[in-house]
From TrEMBL:
Keywords: Cell membrane, Membrane, Transmembrane, Transmembrane helix. This is MFS transporter. InterPro entries: MFS_trans_sf. The chain crosses the membrane at residues 21-41, 47-67, 104-129, 141-162, 207-226, 246-269, 290-315, 335-360. The keyword Glycoprotein does not apply.
Length: 401
């Protein structure tokens, strides 16, 4: 079984890992800066929330038209564009006197570019690491995201005590520029995986339709999108459920559980067993929240959040299946569609959870979201069997030639 030491001995993977960490710091710094400026200018909590977390809505629209670029552009070039766009946008955000409407327009730039190339990084990861190491590599990058989100928002909050939001934008722009140089110097140039011919919009629509229309790959997307999104709807109620420090404990517990799941499944669970754990992990993601229907004390809910979040690790073997059942020429678009759909369903889940919480208590709403997640997982199980690995035949059972 591959180890983290073997993984980090690969120079190109180290480049990708470092970039992932620095990019998350940049995202946290620029998000806090934009949210602070927007709230000062408008006094609107809604606009502030959109400034910090509304960017994925731009990616949703752009990905429906431009996602095929993930396979039609040379990977290193695509990753450089992904670094250059936020560097330029954050640099312009630091211009004094920029109206908040203009800041929203600048916010869209990196999300449009990211939508075009959102699957490229995972194709490069698959090319860089040895066969059978993708799940370990993905788990390492997931750990980087979780850890650096905590560090980034913490450092960003402290930095605002001494720096202005404009200074934070400059820090973010410099971080993005450093990542751009790191990609250019640290990654080998590779040819595009796609054929490079034809209209990008037409190709995007055609491949998206094929992926979502397939009886094999559609259940994979449902499994990776919908149950996760519904549980995120439960997590979106942490603040109304636990006022003050309790909400912080819940978010911290959920992040710790997710990181533990990625670490154990990615590093210590063999490939065959990983695939068999998809069902149990999907149930683990939601079932603990059913206890919220009994309105337990907050200390129990913290444990629930930790245990449930381990179930997010089911996405690792599900991504393995997705690669196995898609053509290599569209792997970038397949993974880009996964990432975009995940963000959309997280937003949908948060909206549904908020609506349910207007009718019942936050605790009962969280339990209701868990029920919905379990129901979707159960209903999708027959479809997932179509993508399950076929058991290898023993020598005596193989057909004779």
């Amino acid at each position: 079984m591959p180890t983290y030491r073997e993984l980090f001995s690969i120079p190109e993977f180290r480049v990708l890992f470092v970039n992932r960490c620095v990019v998350m710091l940049s995202v946290a710094a620029s998000g806090l800066a934009l949210g602070t400026i927007t709230y000062r200018a408008t006094g609107s909590p809604v606009l502030t929330a959109l400034a910090m977390f509304g960017g994925p809505l731009v990616s949703l629209v752009a990905s429906q038209l431009l996602l095929a670029s993930s396979d039609s552009v040379r990977p290193r070039t695509a990753l450089m564009w992904q670094m250059a766009a936020p560097a330029v946008a954050n640099g312009l955000q630091a211009v004094p006197g920029m109206p908040w409407q203009g800041r929203f327009a600048l916010l869209a730039i990196p999300y449009v570019v990211n939508a075009m190339f959102s699957g490229t990084q995972w194709v490069v990861v698959r090319d860089v690491v040895p066969e059978g190491s993708f799940v370990l590599a993905r788990s390492a990058l997931n750990l980087a995201v979780g850890g650096m989100q905590v560090v980034g928002y913490g450092l960003g909050g402290l930095a605002l005590l001494w720096l202005s939001p404009r200074d934070l934008f400059l820090v973010a722009a410099l971080a993005d520029a450093a990542c751009l140089v790191n990609v250019r110097l640290g990654l080998r140039d590779r040819p595009a995986r796609g054929r490079g011919a034809g209209n990008v919009v037409r190709c995007t629509v055609r491949v998206n339709r094929a992926l979502l229309g397939s009886a094999v790959t559609r259940p994979l997307y449902v499994a990776m999108w919908v149950p996760n999104g519904l549980v995120v709807g439960a997590e979106a109620l942490y603040v109304p459920y636990g006022h003050g420090p309790v909400a912080g404990y819940l978010f911290a517990a959920a992040a710790a559980g997710m990181m533990l799941g990625d670490l154990v499944v990615g590093r210590f669970v063999p490939h065959r067993l990983r695939d068999r754990l998809i069902g149990p992990l999907r149930i683990t993601l939601a079932a603990p929240y059913l206890l919220l229907l009994l309105a337990p004390p907050p200390a129990v809910t913290v444990v629930v959040a930790f245990v449930a979040s381990v179930g997010y690790a089911a996405s690792l073997p599900l991504q393995e299946r997705l690669f196995a059942h898609t053509d290599a020429a569209v792997h970038g678009q397949a993974m880009g569609l996964y990432g975009t759909g995940l963000m959309v369903w997280q937003a949908v889940g948060a909206l549904i959870g908020g609506l349910v919480a207007t009718a019942v208590s936050p605790a009962h709403a969280m339990g209701a979201m868990a029920v919905a997640s379990v129901v979707v997982t159960a209903a999708n199980t027959p479809g997932l069997r179509r993508s399950a690995p076929q058991p290898e035949l023993s020598a005596s059972a193989r057909p004779s030639s």
